[in-house]
Design a protein that fits this description.
By secondary structure, the chain is an alpha/beta fold. It has one domain (3-265): Alpha-Beta Barrel (TIM Barrel), CATH 3.20.20. The protein contains 12 helices and 10 strands. It has an 8-stranded parallel beta sheet with strand order 9-8-7-6-3-2-1-10. A two-stranded antiparallel ribbon has the order 4-5. Helix 8 (185-190) links the parallel strand 8 and strand 9. It starts with a helix and ends with a helix. Bound molecules: ribulose-5-phosphate.
Length: 267
């Protein structure tokens, strides 16, 4: 056992090897959006379900708004520095150090590389540099693969998503977070030597669509989700969370998970 293995146990469930990570790091670029205006309340109520393995958040939210009911893992979002008000959301740089992550008690760090964007080089070099820092402390690194707004079509292209996942792992990430592709997601996973987890992206039209996406990703070999809006912008966030947990950790199929969701939402 080394420090990285120990910390990964706070992220990936020991029994299933999978993880349900809730992302609440959106405010750093998008502001106080619906579902996370009262971010302390959102975290408290969702954590109280006992279904969240780990949280992804910035140091500001960790410091001022994180008071979970249980003892979940934490991945510290350590890149940012760009907002929707600025010229380019992909111009991210480091916003926290490995020492700071350790000081705060985080289990891992996360940084984004925007593949195919004008800042591909800077963000990839940033990922590699953060991987070097993380290695010194046996801190795992979550590599977030973003594409930027100009690349909407590429988000659905398994070849492009596979490229991003592989590139992230080659630059030192221990886990990759990327987009689900309806076709050939198994190929994305097969070409990536580290666990792959999916982000949600903007909210799906229905909760059922969210469940189908997660189920499809798990069937393709994903190790779970690092998701935000589809959960905390749902009309029934805690019910949806239980259904998602069922898919990830209890091998439910989509019908079983949807049945659980309906049952809990009706209470
Ligand atoms: C926001 C992020 C989020 O962590 C990520 O996109 C997951 O959230 P969602 O499921 O809402 O897309 O990087 O900056």
């Amino acid at each position: 056992m080394n420090g990285k293995e120990r910390r990964l146990r706070n992220i990936l469930n020991r029994n299933t090897g999978r993880s349900l990570v809730l992302a609440v790091d959106h405010g750093m670029a998008l502001g106080a959006m619906s579902g996370i205006v009262d971010i302390a309340g959102t975290i408290r109520s969702l954590d109280a379900t006992g279904k969240v393995d780990c949280w992804l958040m910035t140091k500001g939210i960790y410091t001022h708004a994180f008071d979970p009911a249980g003892d979940p893992g934490v991945i510290l979002r350590a890149s940012g520095g760009a907002t929707i008000a600025g010229p380019d959301l992909t111009r991210e740089g480091p916003t926290a150090s490995a020492e700071e992550a350790l000081f705060l008690g985080a289990d891992a760090m996360a940084t984004t590389a925007f593949i195919g964007s004008g800042y591909e080089h800077e963000t990839l070099v940033g990922m590699a540099a953060m991987a070097t820092e993380c290695r010194k402390w046996n801190l795992p690194l979550l590599g977030v693969i973003g594409l930027g707004k100009t690349n909407e079509e590429k988000k659905k292209d398994p070849k492009f998503i596979a490229l991003g996942a592989r590139v992230g792992a080659e630059h030192g990430a221990d886990i990759i977070k990327t987009y689900y592709t309806e076709n050939d997601f198994d190929k994305v996973v097969a070409g990536c030597p580290v666990p792959v987890m999916i982000a949600g992206g903007p909210k799906c039209e229905t909760n059922l669509d969210t469940l189908k996406m997660i189920h499809g990703a798990l069937q393709g070999g994903a190790r779970g989700i690092v998701m935000g809006r589809n959960v905390w912008q749902s009309p029934h966030p805690t019910a949806l969370l239980s259904a998602v947990y069922g898919l990830i950790h209890e091998n439910m199929d989509v019908n079983e998970a949807a049945g659980l969701l309906d049952h809990l939402a009706a209470r």
